[in-house]
């Protein structure tokens, strides 16, 4: 049995209980291969969900009216923040939900279950800084998530300065991605023709050779940015983000992203 896949599937099942209209996330706490607590994102126990708020939440109705939106004409299957045209992560002052990982440790506390030295599994990326603070204080030793990307800048700071171990579900990571200190960079040169987007042979490049890539964008697959994670990551960077890059083992020309 692949335990990571087992726990991942359970996270997805737990997520189906979420009443959140934005996205549905599930989390579980595991100790000695036993699930000791579960949690999904949503409002506190007994609190009406956002689909009902359109009719009963006077503050929300007032805010909608200020924006020229009639609550009775709103699609109650859409998150109120999106109805007010906020982007993801914005307008959180209107959100009544608690994140799945927070609810997971709160459920454990409700039943007097110790969370120290447990592992948190969740079907999303690294938690936000607020949840990370609570997870650290609750004694969680490891977080297993779907990818190594940060909800906010402070979550990165917390991870780098804590004893938390962060990793991706093993079945989501290719074997080649587990090679430490391997960096794969794709650099965009818009002035090149399609015929010139040719693959370079394997070679090494010092990070000093990258500092002149001003106004260029590239993606970096690396482990050195989060040494405690012990896995690779893929994300968009600019030249100011390469301080921790030690060497490049593969370099490709790629077609400009449209």
Sequence of secondary-structure elements: HEEHHHHEHEHEEEEEEE
Assign the structural class, choosing from mainly alpha, mainly beta, alpha/beta, alpha+beta, or little secondary structure: alpha/beta
C-alpha Rg, in Å?
22 Å
Q: Tell me about the biggest sheet?
A: 5 strands, mixed
Give the overall average pLDDT: 74
* Termini gap: 42 Å
Tell me, briefly, the overall form: elongated
- The oligomeric status of these chains comes to single chain
SSE inventory with pairings:
Layout: H1 3-15, E1 26-31, E2 34-40, H2 50-56, H3 58-66, H4 80-83, H5 100-110, E3 119-122, H6 129-137, E4 142-145, H7 153-160, E5 165-168, E6 184-188, E7 205-206, E8 218-222, E9 233-237, E10 247-248, E11 250-254
Parallel strand pairs: 3-4, 4-5, 6-11
Antiparallel strand pairs: 1-2, 1-3, 6-8, 7-10, 8-9
Helix pairs in contact: 6-7
Quick structural gist:
By secondary structure, the protein is an alpha/beta fold. It has helices at residues 3-15, 50-56, 58-66, 80-83, 100-110, 129-137, 153-160; strands at residues 26-31, 34-40, 119-122, 142-145, 165-168, 184-188, 205-206, 218-222, 233-237, 247-248, 250-254.
Descriptors for this entry?
4-stranded mixed sheet, 24% helix, disordered C terminus, elongated
Describe the protein.
This protein has 258 residues and is of the alpha/beta class. The protein contains 7 helices and 11 strands. It has a 5-stranded mixed sheet, with helices on both faces. A hairpin with a 2-residue loop joins strand 1 (26-31) and strand 2. The two termini are 42 Å apart.
